[in-house]
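Structure tokens please, single chain.
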Amino acid sequence: MPKFFINPPTASGEGSSIVINGEDANHLARVLRAKPGEEITATDGQGRLYKIVLTAVTPEAVHGEILAVTVDHSEPEVKITLYQSILKGEKMDWVLQKGTELGISTFVPFLSSRTVARPAPPQYGKKQERWQKIVTAAAKQSGRGLIPAVQSIITWEELPPLLTGRFALVAWEAETICSLRQALTGQPQPSAVNLIIGPEGGFAPEEVATLVQQGAQSVSLGPRILRAETAGPLTAALILYHYEALDALEPSLSTLSRKGR
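Here you go.
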């Protein structure tokens, strides 16, 4: 059963009551056919994991009682923001879904000179809403501790200023000096990494130069050219692996509170 997201309860200890509304309630009642007495896992997006026994189930509202509260270890310490030049059709969907599963915290879609998929500005809101739904579903399925944010589409001109003073990496197939490993090894573990990935046709050289002038580090992802939809999730996974954010959890989680103890 997937992990569910709830608002932090007013009283978060054992025996406290919670209510799940909206799509999650409908999913529990009609898709999963959950029944009173069954147990589910939920997170509040603030580092707490809840074991809940259901007490009443309807498509409109699911009621439950908290059995235990533990620390939610599912979120990596290093927060990755993926700046992804918009890709065509399902390629963008794939990046959002797999990036969420791997641990990316924020997605920022942008337009660059070689971007093929160019939605009209009036469509930006609908695109963002659709992409956020994809990310939300992937976060629940993969047991994330928070739902990553998909920000509004930005233009190329808006991108470089967002990187000022931040640790930023731009993956570029023409980079011959600095590898991803070298860039990460020479950097003490940051709290956040900004990763910039180009469109199907890659970045124009002048675009990379602009990002580097803004402080980003151009990096190579190896001798083989990756597809645009592969580069983001793969690089995010390599970054998290480098900082040991993909290690297995300890066998027993530290319990904050548990009913009956």
